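Worked example (supplementary).
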Amino acid sequence: MSMTTYDSFGARARRFSPRLVLSELMMKQWFEPVIPFFVMIALWIAFSVVIRDYSSSENILSLLRLFAEFGFVALAMAFCLITGGIDLSVGAIFAVGNFSALFFLLVMEWPAGLAILATLAIGGAVGAMNGLLIGYLKARPFLTTLVTLIILRATVNLLNTHYATSFATNSTDSNVWDFLGSGNLFGLPVNAATLLIVLLIGHVFLSRSRYGWHLTAIGASRKAARHAGIRVNFMLFATYVLSGVLCAAGGVFYAARQTSTDSTTGVGWEFQALTAVVLGGVSLAGGKGTVWRAMIGALIVFSLTNGLVRSGVPGYVTSAIIGVLLLAAVGIDVKWSKNRGKVIQKTYVNPAYFELSPPPSVKSGDASPYAQNDRLIHAEAIGLDQVEGPEDVILDRQDRVYGSTRDGNIIRFSGPDLDQCEIFAHIGGRPLGMQFDQDENLIVAVAGMGVYGVKPDKTVYKITDETNRTWYKLNDDSRLRMADDLDIAPDGKIYFSDCTTRYEMTTNTLDILEARPNGRLVCYDPATKTTSTVINHFYFPNGICISHDGKSVLIASTSLCKIFRYWLEGPRKGQTEVLIDQLPGNPDNINRASDGTYWLALVGIRTPTFDLAMRKPDFRRRMVKEVPIDEWLAPGMNHGCVLKFTEDGRTLESFWDPTGVSHSTLTSMREHKGYLYLGGLENNRIGRVKLTGVDESWSGYEAYWGAKRRDRS
Amino acid sequence: MAIDATTRRFGNVQLRARSFAANQERIVFLITAALIVLFGIGLPGFATVDNFLNLLRSISILGILGLGMGLIVISRGIDLSEVAIMAGSWSIALIEIQQGMGAAPAIMLALCLAVVIGCINGVMVAFVEAPPLFVTLAAGFVIYGAAFWFAPAWVVYAPKESRALLFLGAGQIGGVPVPIFVFAAAATVAHLFLSRTSIGRFIYAQGDNPDAARLAGIALRPLIVFEYALVAVLAWLAGYVWVGTTGSMQMAITQGTMIFDVILVVVLGGISLVGGRGGVFSVVAGCMLIGVLLNAFTIMDVNSEVQNIIRGFVLLAAIILDNWLHPRDEETARQGD
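After joint prediction of all chains, the assembly is encoded as:
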C-alpha cells in the first residue's frame, strides 16, 4: 500500500499556518485586550528606563497604593459601560465618599467601622439617584450623570469649605483607620489588596453569576434582554447603586490615606476612568467587557499620568494626551465593533496547497470501469417531490425505506409500492448518515447536533454530541460540528465522521476549498458511554463503513478523492492505509454490497479546472473573499455516479446518471433484496434500480446482525 | 382593536409632543415674564433700564453659543467642546497679538483655528462614526491642553487700543451695547438659514431620521462636517464678543460649567435632544429665562456653587421633561445618544 497521505509531512504542515492561527485568534474574546496589555507592559518598561528606581519594589507598592482608589472608580465606570450606560458622576461620588468618611469620623466622631458603612450607604444613595433617573425614568445616562456630576461637585465644594477647619483641627486615633490608610494586607497596600478582592468577586459576579449575565445581556441588546424576562429597569438601577458604592469605597481609602479634602479631589476622574475603561477594551456599545480589561486600561492611564507628572510634564499636556487617547480608543472601539465580523469573515478561510494526481478517465465507451453510462437514467422514483434532499437512505427488516431530509426529519416510505409517506421522526439539525444497530434502533449522524438514535417506537434520543478537545487548538473542537456518516462495529461501537471542525453544514464547501485536514474520525463506545477521537486531522472524512469482516473501517475522504482503511484489529491495528488512491470524483457514503464488495457514491466529479484551483491556494482565497458564493468554482455536480469496489480496492463497475436530471449529487445508496436505493443531497426523490445477478434475498440488516451474517472468523 | 389602541396611544404621545413643542417656547417666555415681574417687585435694582441692557448683553454670548449648540442638537448631535473652541482659538490669537501680530490676521487666525477644530470634530463624528458626546468631550480636553501649550496663561489680555478687536464686545450703538446687535443679527441669520435654505431643512431632516435623510439622497457625512464647522464659527463669534466684553480670554471657562449653561439654554427652549425639533426662537426663549435667573442670582449675590446646584437641578428637570415629551427608544439608542 502506498504511503498514507493524511499523515505525511506536507499534510501535517498544512494543519498550521500563521494566517490560520491569526484568524482563529481574532475570534477569541480574550484576544482583544492583548494589545492594551502589551501597551501597559511597554509603558511600564519605558518609565522604568526613564525614571530612576521606577521598578523597585517600594516604588511599585507605593504606586499601587496611589492606584487602588482610581481602580475602584474605573471598575464602577466599567460596570455602567457594560450595561450600555455610562456614569460620569463617578469622580464626584468619589469626592462625596471622601468627604462623608471624614465627616462621620472627624465631625460626628463615629467609630471607623460605622463611618465606613455610612459612607458606602451614602455612595449607594447617590448612585440610587442616578439609577432612578436612568433605570426607571429612562433618562439619558450621559447627560443625566453629567448633571449629577455638577450638582454633586458643587455640593461637595460647599461642604468642604464649611467643614475645612473641623477637618484640619480634629483627628482620630482609630487603629482601623490608620490601617486603612497605611497598612498592608498579604504584602500589598491594604487598598490594593481590597481592590484585588473586589476584582475577583466582580469577575465571578460578571462572568459566572446570573445577575452578571443579566447586566451583560442588557448591554448587548436591551430589547432581547427585556424579551427574555430580565428586569431591565431594576438591573440598571442596581448597577448605578453598585457604581456609587464602589466610588464611595474608593473615597474611603482616599480619606484614610490623605485625611484631608480639597476642591480637586477626584476632579476629572470620570474622564480618566472613561478613557481607561474604553482603552482596556470595554466596549462603549455595551455588553462586552471584563473587570480585567477595565483594570488594564486603568493601569495604562494611571501609569501614564503618574509617569508624565514625575517626568515633569505639565498637567495640561497630560490632559491633552488623555484626550487624544480617548479619541483614539473610542474611534478604534467603534470601528472594531462594526467591522470585527467582517475581518474574521475575510481572514477565516485559509486555503492550502493541494495536489491531486490525474484522475482516471470517465469517458463513455472507454474500457475503464469508471466509463460513463446511463444505468441510472431510468431509476424508479420513490416519493417524488415529497422528500427534500435525502442524504442517506436505508431499509429496515420490514422493507420500509427511510430517508434523512433537509428539514430535520427522518422520512419513511412503506406499503408494497412504497407510496405511503410519513415522518418517522423529527430530530432537527441536518440528519445525514444512518445505520440500524442490533436492536433495530436507527442511529443517525446529525450535522450541527451530533449522533442521535430513533427507537422503533419513534422516540428520539441523544447518543453523543461532544468528544475530547484537542488541547493545543484555539478553536474549541469538543463539540461535534458536522457528524456526517456512521457505521456500527460488531461490538456495538459507533464510528462516525465529523467532517469539519472549522465550518458548519451550511458552509462545508469552504472546508473543501480550504483543503486542510480539519475533520476527524470519532468513536462512541456504548459500553462506557464515552466518545473519543480516533483519527484527528483528516481531510474531510465523509462515508464510513465497517468492512464485511468487521476488522476495519473504510473512510472516504471527499477532498482527497481517496478511500482509506483504518484497522480496528489484527496485526495492523490502529494503522491507516490508502485503499483507493485516485477516484474520478469526490467520494461520499460507502455501504456494503451483497457479494462481499462495497458501494460508493460520488457526490461530485473532478474537473481539470478544479484540480488546478486546488494547487492555487491564493487563487481560492481571493475567490472566497471577492466573488459571491454562487460564482465559486466547484467540482462537477451535475452527474450522479455510484461505484462498486472490492475488498482490495479494485473498482468493478459504475452506474451513472450523466444528465443529472433525476439523480445528481448522489450521496448514498443501499442494496436491498435485489434493488439499489439511491439518495442525494439535493434530490427531490429516492431512486431505485433493479440489480441483475445479485442475491435477491440479501438485506443489510440480516447480513450484518441477523441470521444471514457472514462468517467473520 | 389592537391597531386602534396602538394608534390612539401613539397618537396621544405625538399630540402631547406636538402641542407642547409648539407651546414650549411660549411657556418659557411666560415663565420668564413672570420671573421678571417677580424679581422686579422683590429685587431692588433689577427693574432698571441699565440692568436690562446689562442682562441682554450678558446673555448675548450665551445666546450665540446657544445658536451653535441648537443647530447641532437639531441635527441629533452635540458639541461639548464649543466653549473650549471659543477659549482655545482666542487665547492663541491674543497671544499672537501680544507677540506682534496685527488684529485682523489674529482674528482670522482664531477663525481658522476654530473651523479646523470643528472640521476635525465633524470628521470624527461623520467618518469615524464615534458618538459625538465622546468625540467632543475628548476634543474639549485636547483643545484645552494644546491651547495651554501655545498660550500658557489662564488669562490672556487683549490690547486695549485695538478698536476692531473690541468693538463687537465693548462698543455701543445709540446707547445699546453692540453684543445685543450681534446676537440679534446672528439669530436672524441662523433662523433664515435653518428655515429658508435647503441645507437648513436637511439639518432638520437629519435630526428627524438620519437614515431616512441619507436614503433621500442627502450627503450626510459632508453635512455633519459642515455642521460642526458652523458650530465652531459661532463659537468664534461668541469669543469675539467675549474678548471685547472682558478685554481678555480666560482658559478657566473650559474647565467650568459654562457648556452646561449652553445646553440648558437649548434644551429649556424646546430643542429636543432627539433632534429635528425646535428652532432659533427656542434658543432665544431659553436664553431669556437663564439670563433673568443668572442676573437675579448676581444681584442676590448667590454663592457660585449654590448657583451650580440650582442650575443642575433645572437642567435635570429640563432633560427629564424633554425625555417625557419626546420619548426616545432607549432600546435602539446608541451609547452617547
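Two points are worth noting when inspecting this output. Chain A touches chain B through 48 residues (CB under 8 Å). Residues 1-5 of chain A have pLDDT under 50 and may be disordered.
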